[in-house]
Design brief:
- This protein is mainly α and 210 residues long.
- It has two domains: 46 residues, Arc Repressor Mutant, subunit A (Orthogonal Bundle), CATH 1.10.10.60; 142 residues, Tetracycline Repressor, domain 2.
- The chain has ten helices and no strands.
- Helix 9 runs antiparallel to helix 10.
- Keywords: DNA-binding.
- This is HTH tetR-type domain-containing protein.
- It comes from Pseudomonas poae.
Amino acid sequence: MLMDITNTRPSTLQKKEALLDVACELFLTKGYAAVSIDEVVARVSQSKTNVYSWFGGKRELFMACVRRMLQVWVEHLRHDYSDMAPQEALYGLGKKILELVLSERAVILHRLVIAESVDFPEVAQAWMEAGPVQSYQLIAELLDRFQHRGDFREVNSLSGAKFFHDLLLGDMQLQIMLGIRQPPTEAEIERHLERVLDLFITGYQTLRNQ
């Protein structure tokens, strides 16, 4: 009796995902310039034709990796904060953002994007749209909910979101990106969040509606 092997072959989507998995890891570990399409396809036993057909080339493959990694990370930030008080909800979301953005992989990716952005501005735009802009939107949605409940006075929620995001990361992220400090400990994150929330909840009420 012959076995039906039609379902054992990887689908196009599976092959594409496998190629992306390998490409993303290579870019993170070796940097953009040191990775070749030949190396990527050799790792997954595929052809260069697949890369050109699915992505267009090495630049587009790198942008696909940036978008993919950020999409996964942003999904990690999503949570139902609807029943929480503002301070509790912002603390929870802020902690997730700090842990994510200051993680080793996120810092490596951010440095890679900055390094390539001079000659490759499209990747910086892709990173901005898939990462920070999505974070702003999540925070703004939370602030809108607080305003509708009457917890905060009504101001531009996107302005408030950027204000919170900047307070949250600011100098700490810059120092880590420059390699002049280590990522914060759990205790340091908690102390930092308490200071940020005190400043934000006070300052948010003074933002003009623009």
